[in-house]
Amino acid sequence: MKIIHCSDLHLDADLRSRFDAESAADRRAELMNTFRRLCRQAREFHARAVLICGDLFDTDAPSPSAVRAVEDLVLTYSEILFFCLRGNHDSRSVLFRTREMPGNFRLFDDHWSVWALGSGPEEQGSAGRRKICIIGKEAGDGPFTPPPLDPANINIVMLHGQVREGISASDPESLPLGALRGVGIDYLALGHLHSFRSFPLDQRGTAVYSGCLEGRGFDECGECGFVLLDTDISSGGIRSRFIPFASRNLYRVMCDVSGCVSDAEVYERISSALSSSPAQAKDLVRLELTGDLEYLCSPDPALIRAEWEDRYHYFDFSDNTNPVVHSEDFLCDATLKGEFVRIVSAAGGLDEPERAAVLRCGLRALSGEPLFP
């Protein structure tokens, strides 16, 4: 039996703090479309269930159109069971408030719930038969209790939060690994972290963060996707593999321009850094210049954008370089530049970054260059 494990879809996210209004709207539509593609993929895999381990929506009050779009998908793919767990962003109560709850949709609350999967009598929990069980609960304010499991079954536990060592947790978003080990878990399906991570839980089970389906900003870079589980009820085994699935990946491309003495050298470094990155034309890219840059080097942001923004679906640029002025080169300089450097170097009330910025602006002005390139 095949099962899909996903989490942190953050549908209907605003995104305007990360992109311009048009790009944010496009990206928001892509997030919803990826969930549509996931449902189609589940059907193609003949998956029995889709496990959504929290943060289906980005807020607890998503737009009515987003809620209805998700409800329509659940109703359309009626042969698939959707197990939905509330995360720290969304609310389980927004779905099917105004429509009849379909039989293929399961919501968890703050108490452990167990559902048996199978075909025919297994789904009803026939005695004496090994079952594939989906177990889960939402984060609560009380002490964390281990799930009630029958070790004779294949047990898949769904939770949302940050795993910690120990047997107790100080906050509801922490999941104590000590309380989850040795209780009969075969697969711990986790949500909350936005990148894929898999690690042994104990001698029997594996814990897996599926990561988000699509990156929403440049703190969620690299491949995103879901985990496909293949369970064997006869042997009691579970095989799992991560499947990259995002329509677009996000990449932060760091470019150290230390040592460059001309704009031409800076542009060569940029070209090399972008060419070396795995980013493709469909992806979203943020270029970040770093390092120490001589004050007379002034890479033009407009030129950088004009040169590279058409190569990617979205391109952003930030200059995080440190302006470098070698004060000792001006100490004996009998020019206005030398006098300016000596005065600023001796001035009090400035920390070193502020002094460097003042020196850079002043020297650029005295050289006839714009103050802020």
What does the secondary structure layout of this molecule look like, with pairings?
Elements (H helix, E strand, L loop, with lengths): L1 E5 L14 H24 L4 E5 L10 H13 L4 E5 L19 E3 L5 E5 L14 E5 L17 E7 L1 E3 L9 E3 L10 E5 L5 E4 L5 E4 L15 E8 L4 E8 L5 E7 L6 H14 L7 E7 L1 E3 L6 H8 L5 E6 L2 E3 L11 H11 L5 H15 L7
Parallel strand pairs: 1-2, 2-3, 3-4, 6-7, 7-10, 8-9, 10-12, 15-16, 16-18, 17-19
Antiparallel strand pairs: 1-13, 5-6, 11-12, 13-14
Q: What is the gist of this entry?
A:
With 373 residues, this protein is α/β, with parallel strands linked by helices.
Estimated share of beta-strand residues: 25-35%
Helix residue percentage: 10-25%
How is the main sheet built?
6 strands, mixed
CATH class type of the largest domain: Alpha Beta
Please tell me what the overall shape is: elongated
CATH H level, superfamily name of the largest domain = Metallo-dependent phosphatases
Fold-level CATH name of the largest domain? Purple Acid Phosphatase, chain A, domain 2
How many strands? 19
SSE series: EHEHEEEEEEEEEEEEEHEEHEEHH
